Predict the structure.
Amino acid sequence: MKFPDDFVWGVATASYQIEGAAFEDGRGESIWDRFSKTPGKVLNGDTGDVACNHYHLYKEDVALIKNLGVDSYRFSIAWPRILPDGRGRVNQKGIDFYKRLIDELLQSGVSPAVTLYHWDLPQVLEDMGGWLSRDTAKYFADYAMVVFDELGDVVTSWITLNEPWCSAFLGYGNGEHAPGKKDFAAHLRAAHNLLLGHGLALQGYRQLNLAAEIGITLNLSPQYPASSSPEDLAAARKADGFQNRWYLDPIFKGSYPSDMEELLTLVDPAIRPGDLGLISQPNDFLGINFYSRGLIAADKDGRPQGQKPERSVTAMGWEVYPEALYDLLVRVHRDYGPTRLYITENGAAYEDHLENGQIKDKERQSYLEAHIAQCARAIESGVPLKGYFVWSLLDNFEWAFGYDRRFGIIYVDFETQERILKDSALWYRSFLRR
Ligand code: FCB
């Protein structure tokens, strides 16, 4: 496998999934605090109150990151730590935490890649309508400006939003994630307001003339037809429109996909003149989170239906299909031409067994190896892929699955907060040394 010398290797996490210290130092409540405490929403009633206690153990965690030999660490900032009321009053202690973390990273020679929104919306803003309200886009941009102002001189790379599809659809469409609303039509308004927030933050950022690059991260997944029948082809195209193009098109083309008529009717009322111009301002890179593919057949009404995986699956039930990553990269490069691309997340949950202080997670290691190989193939085919981040540095709070699904290359004992490098971490380290 060949990679350019300046290729960025990293590991990734997100604030609510690892920080803990949920109500310390003035942090406000987020929608995930509220949601995880609502009975029945998260497996085993788990919450992020303590998580990996990273808020207190960040020095140890940065030492682990350094020890892996990665170039960059992707983490997210908890909006309610910075602005406990969602807007207005700034909580200095929140800012200070991220300054300490970034100092520690820079001293360790690791560059900070910062996500501004990885799903922990301040609950007060949700009470005012959350992402269903257009005002939230503006508040997001205001929050982003506070962060740019405080950390703009030390951050290497900015990601405005992580996976707006998840925030919108899982949060407001099917209710599997916070804030747990279930309204398909409304979720498209949430998606639009999220994209608008991205656009407004990007516009503000450009006025500051800072050196760091800025982009957005989407969760993309190729949707393959289950057969070559015209019905299945059309259904796969629809699934692709819903999952991928609904976000890629506005960002790179300034329009929603014209073949998705039903969705267009639903989102139209939310769009105001100028919105799509803001959303499609040039960004410096596109971040892609890739886990799996979709295999799609048409039901009797022509609607897309996910089919049973053909190959092995991870503990999430997600099919392991590394070639889909190659197909995706080549396609995004061809159809949208982003200046640069990063894989901002890729990884797998498996059932880990701790034996004699070791975790022999062969499957996770092969998953990573196989996907990294597809990245090398894509680069060879001319895709401007500039970096790869493993999800995740640590086992953590996996949203609706709580602590039950382990994605870390480092094992976390949630009773003692002990960290143990899994074999996949040892492999990643020696791969990076080579
Ligand atoms: C992505 C999320 C990330 C993590 C992985 C498994 O959708 O961005 O926080 O939960 O899935």
